[in-house]
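seq as requested:
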Amino acid sequence: MPKDKNLEGKEVSGHISRRDFLRDAGLVVGAPTLGTISASAAAAETAEIALPAAAADPGSQPEFIQIELTVNGDVYRRAVEPHWTLRQLLRDQIGLTSPKDWCGGYGACGSCTVIMNGRPILSCLTLACECNGATVETAEGIAKAKHPIIQAYINHNAFQCGYCTPGFVCTAKALLDRNGDPTEADVRDALGGNLCRCGTYQQHPLAVIEAAGNLKESA
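struct tokens:
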């Protein structure tokens, strides 16, 4: 079988060796890749880095709003940003960790519930800047005041992991403040917005009704 000659005049057999194939393939594939890398490096040397507007202006400062509110009987004066929630203020600025965040701030679980001006509210959906002059109660304050709802929850094992419990306690306490003799239906209706991952729902009405009885006895 006659042998071919390559462009350099060398004789070539009818097959290509593995070494020649890998060498030639490496040159074919590697050349464009190296060219791209070189071009990218050259562009990076001459390109200007675009800084965000905030970083480009070191003098810019976030806007703060001064508020004053009463939490568990103590007065707090704080400077808050317009987008901060009451939950952020209570946890990150005041240091009260009972308002939790199970649903990611969508107001769907009730674990962030606190009492503001006598009403249970979702602190994850309430802007801190709107709470100027407000009176807020959290589970810490309810426990400190030795409200009977705390012991009733313990007596009836109305919790397991305890993550959702502060929200339930605040909602239950707000119910008892406005209705000293609730029925089971009243309790279930009031607690309908609070979710319990452990599924202790059947124990909550028992605890709330017991706490209502204890409140009447001590009145």
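The chain has two domains: 4-46, 65-219.
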